[in-house]
Structure formats: structure tokens, C-alpha cells
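explain this.
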Amino acid sequence: MGFEPRAHTSVQYRTKITETNHVQKYEQGRIHFLQEERLHIQKKTFTKWMNTFLQKVGMEVDDLFVDLADGKKLLKFLEIISGEKLAKPNNGKFRVHKIENVNKSFAFLHTKVRLESIGAEDIVDGNSRLILGLIWTILLRFHFQDIETYVDEENENSEKKFAKDALLLWVQRETHGYPGVEIRDFSSSWRTGLGFNALIHAHCPDLFDYQPLLNNKNIDNLNHAFDIANNELGIPRLLDAEDIDNSRPDEKSIMVYVASYYTKMKKNQVLASGGS
């Protein structure tokens, strides 16, 4: 009889350990799922972004982790986005030729950015995380580098923001005063879709009436903005509404898309002012 409490305690301890293990496995599984989902969304967004350039020369990437392997599309893409002439690729038939082509791209990129922990073999072998890292590096250099704004718009001697910080400040200014919009980041702040619509409306108020959108579902507002941006402003639809209407939208994907708004709208402002 004296040993029963100890045996009971031992069973409770083992049960608690088992429950803890189950919770840890669930949490680890959930984290892995979210990471894979984020990679999937980035892959889709980055692919669409690349294709906006490649389609100009009749080329297209279908699978980002496969189609860059021979190095030919990567070389052509870098030529288009940089406006510079790169080394001519070989036929890319054998592995050694593929690696040679990718190395030609890397030789060019090394003159523009710092590439670390990635080699041509990683691209040829379809290393998903490193390929996404490479495209993100290219994005930072060629898509975000020219984004800049002064903290005080009226004073060119004030502090200057660049890239992500400048893009966020620009969006906050453009959407200031719009009901339902408070842009604090490049993630959950965009979930309702109102931020995208406010950004469009701030520049093209004649395209639609903003007020009725306040009563819409998130998914409807997102699709409304994406369709208007694509059809009326020529801003490619890089995102799907379902990618944004969730608890943790992917920051990098939203940044890429919002930067497209910045580029288009700044260009339109220059044209409207008589610039070239």
C-alpha cells in the first residue's frame, strides 16, 4: 500500500512527458508547415516578378527551382533588369555547361552585390532556399535600391530613408487619412485589402469609390485592388488574394508587390510633370 502513491506519481510523470512531446511535435510541425508555405508563396511571387521581364524577350520561368538550372534564363534576366550586356551562354546541355553559365551570372552579380554561401552548383541542383535567397538579393539590388524618400518632404536636408524603410514611409504618407488603413509593416497591415485600394485611390481617385469597400470581405477588397492595378495601371498581379488574407502574410512577397506600385506611380508622376 505504501508504494501506490509513488507508482501513481510515476504514471502521471510519464503521461505528462508524453503530452509534452506531443505538443512539441505539433508545434514543430506547425512551424515547418508555415515555413514551407512561406517559401511556396515567395517562389510564386518571385517567379511572376521575373516573368514580367523575361516575357519581353519571349521567355518565361515555369518552375523557379528547375528553370534556372542551365543558367540561360538567369543570364538573360540579369541582362534585361540591369540594361547591361552579359557573357553569352553556352547550350547548357551538360552539367559542366550549366555550372559555367550560372558562374557567368555570378561573375556579373559579384560586381553589384555581395553573394555569400551560395555557388553555381546550388542553382544547378535546384536548392530551393538558396535560389530564393539569390532572387531576393537581386530584388534588393535592382528593385528596391532606387526607393528613397526624405523624412521631411519639404526639407531635402532632412534624414533620408532607403529601400524597405523608405517604401513603408511612402505608403504611410500616401494612405494617410483613409478609413480602415493603418500600415505598420509589410505583413498583417495589408490583410484587409484596404491598404492596396487606398494606395491606388490616392493616385487615381476617379477609378472607383473607396467608401463602399469598408463593408467588403478581405478577399473581395484584395481582388478588387489587384484587378484594378493590373487592368488600369499596368501593375502585374504578383500576389493572390488568398496569400494575403491569412494571419501571417509573407513580408518579402508583399514588399515586392508594393515596390511595383512605387515604381509605377513615381514614373507616372514624372510623366505628368513633363519629365522623361
About this structure: The longest helix spans residues 4-54. The chain has a mean pLDDT of 90. The chain is about 60% helix and 0% strand.
